Amino acid sequence: MLNELRKTQVGRAALRPRLVAVGWDYLVIVVWLALLAVVFVPLYLAGVRPFDGLGMVGSDLLITGLSMLPVGAYLTIGEAGRHHATWGKRRAGLVVVTTRGKRPSAVRIVVRNVVKLLPWQCAHMAVSRLAGGHEEGIAMPLLIASYALAGVSIALLLVRRDRAALHDLVVATRVVPSP
Predict the structure, then answer these.
(1) pTM of the predicted model, to two decimals?
(2) 73 Cβ contact partners less than 8 Å away, ≥ 6 residues apart
(3) Which pLDDT belongs to residue 13?
């Protein structure tokens, strides 16, 4: 099993299964965001504004708690779990391993997903500042960081032989075909 994983790691990882896995995982994420919309849009239309009066830090914490933490938990539970793959990766026949072909630790998976979701968090923080007309001097660097981190990660995924994205390089993991 380990030799099979190592062979896969040194060879060129296929891009299509990675994209298929991302598609399935985004389906899960979109369902979660749709559920949030089902709750919060009627509240907003009824005049209930849960974000009002929180300030920027409170809004950041609420957005993080409602979107980033559940998505991060989904990714982490899947990749640190028995299959060491999210639902999307399992459907695409992929697993997350260390660069040595071993099962990654839970801490490594948490850090991997924090780095993976960092562009999304920066974007949330930038948009909330721009939409509220607050802290525009902070919003633009956050927006630039969001695009830069996402761009670097996508570029690495496309040009590296092993298809390692930024979050894989930071924690020395790879996404490979399941044995």
Answers:
(1) 0.86
(2) none
(3) 63
